[in-house]
Amino acid sequence: MTKRIFRxxxxxxxxxxxxxLIITLxxxxxxxxxQQRNELEDEITxxxxxxxxxxxxxxxxxxxxxxRITLVDRDGTVLYDNETDAGEMENHSGREEIEEALQTxxxxxxxxxxxxxxxxxxxxxxxxxxxxxxxxxxxxxxxxVFANLLYxxxxxxxxxxLLAAFFAMRSxxxxxxxxxxxxxxxxxxxxxxxxxxxxxxxIGHQKETITNQVLEAQRQQREFEDMKEQMRREFTANVxxxxxxxxxxxxxxxxxxxDGFVKPEDIPGFAGKIFEESQRLIVLVNDxxxxxxxxxxxxxxxxxxxxxxxxAEEVLGRLAxxxxxxxxxxxxxxxxxxxxxxxxxxxxxxxxLCDNAVKYNRENGTVIVRVKRDRRGIQLVVAxxxxxxxxxxxxxxxxxxxxxxxxxxxxxxxxxxxxxxxxHGAAFLGAAVELDSRPDEGTVITLTWKAA
Length: 452
Ligand code: ADP
Fold this sequence. Notes:
The chain is α+β, with helices and mostly antiparallel strands. About 55% of the residues lie in helices and about 20% in strands. It contains twelve helices and twelve strands. The protein has helices at about 1-55, 55-60, 95-105, 140-180, 195-260, 265-295, 310-320, 320-325, 345-360, 390-395, 405-410, 420-430, and strands at about 70, 80, 105-110, 120-125, 130-140, 305, 330-335, 340, 365-375, 375-385, 430-440, 440-450. Helix 1 runs antiparallel to helix 4 (about 140-180). It starts with a helix and ends with a strand. Bound molecules: adenosine-5'-diphosphate (ADP). Adenosine-5'-diphosphate (ADP) binds near residues 384, 397 and 402.
């Protein structure tokens, strides 16, 4: 800032200096011209009586004059000229100053002389006998005046520029000093230029806003931490509960077999129940492991190009068996499209979506997986013709252990973790998840990878 002010002051000073110089030269030039004319006029006044008395002879006797002297007859004939032979000179009646002198008594002109070949100033006076006496001197031109004054002008300019620089430096420091001294925290009236007061106020407001924003962010962060802590606690409680139920069943069935309360022919049935419950436990524990891995990012980071169409087709292949049991028609449509991701996670996500689409479908229903690609990005859509999800549950089905119909979900082997894995997995893979569902009509879940 100091530098800028310094430069501005210096530029203004230099401009004023230059303008002053030009004006001074102009005035000086005008003054010199007037002086020259006066000089000629004075000299003619001295010469006139001599010429009137003695004529050309008087002029011929004159010595030591640096002026050109010409005597012209009233008809314009040159009678005498101290620089050239008068006989050879043309008629001068047409010369501006002569014409003027013949008419009014005196005349002046300033032009380039054809005889002397230089800028010349003329003064002519009509004598009593009607003849005109003319004096001429070389005229100082602007450039001549300037050239003669070059050294003093340069010296003065240099001095003035140095002075201007010095004062510019002092002034700029003085202007900036109160701003440097300024303490935005505590500005008292009169501390600083009144023009800056609104800026200071603005900074003060902004500071207040930023402080408030920081405090708000800290509060939100604390709330978020609290919420996370609560979710963790809920998750632990849920996990314990979910694990306890099948374990209690297993332990109960095993106990009555051990105590001999079961007839030998019923034992395979009870063993089957124990097997079922333990299978369910395995699925649950596996899901919990996957969720924890996604939570902690503990999955090996092997990102690769994966074809969504191929993977979906492969997943549907794995679901052919359960689909067949309900006579559900599995279809894959669309085109091949590749995304960059972790194969294991993408497989989990697609599997859970398709698994739900089969699990919550009706007899003879349909599951359609479609892979689409356009300039907005890549989409994988899983649509079923199943029982659908009522509006009020749609926001919550992605929560851990949340089920619309707990007993139904359990009966068909759900853990309540599938959509939670989908949500976390999709976020990990950079895809957005969208749910559109109507009870008794079906559910459509779309994963979108937006084009960059
Ligand atoms: P679950 O293991 O119980 O299927 P999810 O997290 O996968 O758990 O799903 C949560 C709940 O959302 C399910 O219990 C079910 O009620 C509902 N749901 C999920 N997918 C569908 C679907 N395709 N059709 C109808 N309901 C569904």
